[in-house]
Automatic annotation (TrEMBL):
Keywords: DNA integration, DNA recombination, DNA-binding. Residues 211-453 form the Tyr recombinase domain. One of its GO terms (biological process) is DNA integration. The lineage of its organism: Bacteria, Pseudomonadati, Pseudomonadota, Gammaproteobacteria, Moraxellales. It holds the Pfam family Phage_integrase. One of its GO terms (molecular function) is DNA binding. The keyword Ribosomal protein does not apply. The keyword DNA-binding applies. This is Site-specific integrase.
Amino acid sequence: MSTKLKNGQSRYQSKAKVVTIKKFQLLTLAKATHCFNNAEFENYGDAYLEFPVIIQGDGSPSEIFNLYLLKKLEQTIQYDFKTFASIAHQLVDFQRFLEDEQLDFLKFHKLKQLNAIFQYRTRLIEQTNAGLISANSARGRINAVVNFYRFLVTEDLVDHQRYGIPFKDVYKYIAVDNEFGARRKMAIKSHDLAIHVPAKAPNPETIADDGELSPFSIESQTVILKALLKSSREYQLMFYFALFTGARLQTICTLRIKNLIGRKPDSQGFIRLPVGSGTGIDTKFQKPMTLLIPNWLAQDLKIYIDSPQAQQRRQKSSYGESDENYVFLTKLGTPFYTSKAEQQELIEKIKASDSFGARLKLYEGEAVRSYLKVVLLPEIRLIDPQFPSFKFHDLRASFGMNLLESQLQHLPEGHSAMTAVEYVQARMGHRNISTTLQYLNYKSRLQWRNKIQHEYESSLMKYVNSSVNLAGDLS
DNA sequence: GGTCCACGAGACTGTGCGTA
DNA sequence: TACGCACAGTCTCGTGGACC
């Protein structure tokens, strides 16, 4: 019996699943023969990698769900296998429900409560209330199924003329205040089976910055740095990079050797490194920004790059001994994170090959997360047994907190505290200053709140006023 | 130590549209 | 044309167990 709580196959008896086809190519019949095996086919359109297919509990492919995925593929301009995998996983949940309940989803009833989709919605709500899945997941699944039904109706695959369709498109009205305070209604298109997701109450113990982050105190940072001394040089440098630049894991792992060559420090002792779109270094959503790397860290990285250890890893890697290679590689020579640019190279390579067996393997930081939990955290707990579990991104939050504190400490006479906040906002790449203001508000920095209490509150009010949630005022 | 797999959670972006 | 914001869709991160 599965011990996982949040696992589709533990919530249902059905063995329905999603499998992915490594390389998927549509074919057209060029020459028909009496025997299908002798027929000749021609390639039709592009090849798609890692295309998901829904398999029913009895092991056969689901014709209707897979037809839907194909139709969606036909309408897609930019194919992304992760998007299709996401839709397939949402739909397979519905398939499992249908098999368990032995329901015919193509049969529509006058009484809407008898329709399979209505019963599925009820089940999703029950699972949400029982804490088996989140409201977000329930919302995503019912929306995916509604879209699937829209396809059935559009393509005339069901007898909807007789009983109508099992859901209704509805317009919900929300209240919007403009900058002058005038309130008006705005219509949002939805459907009558939508599952409402209540707005999450902010957790005062964390900072909502790309997830719920918990910055470390200076004491905790010291413990981490001490434990890191026992780690390999690669992991030391990766963790230093996060703590001293605030970069995300994705950015650190996609740094290339060429990015560090020939860069001179500025007057304040920082190497200014552009990252994001067009630089070859990935950022979230490829957002362009400039990282400020302390020169001592940049020098350590250069020494590491020239070390025999780094050279050995490069020799095992696909890029080999080249400046195009990543700064950090695992001991097997694989990247910790496959950059967007390399993903594209791999996709083109597999598409161009005749082989249908080549696998698109992408790395997305699993090794680092695994290392943090399995190796580093136990090492930290040898120093401090009470040390809580943490995420790599908490290092970024700690960087933000350190930076803010240092900016406030060195604030020139007569300068606004908001100057410090705006500086941190730019360095962290926050789109919205309200995210940066959370750092100011964080409980461990109460002494700073007291110092700048008045200014802080007036600044905060401005943002609070602009983001008051008015939904629900209108029915 | 690192990889693989199968998910779940949730943050971010695009969309829709009335009004100044 | 910019702005407001909930919803829907997309995509990244995280988890846990098994395995090499």
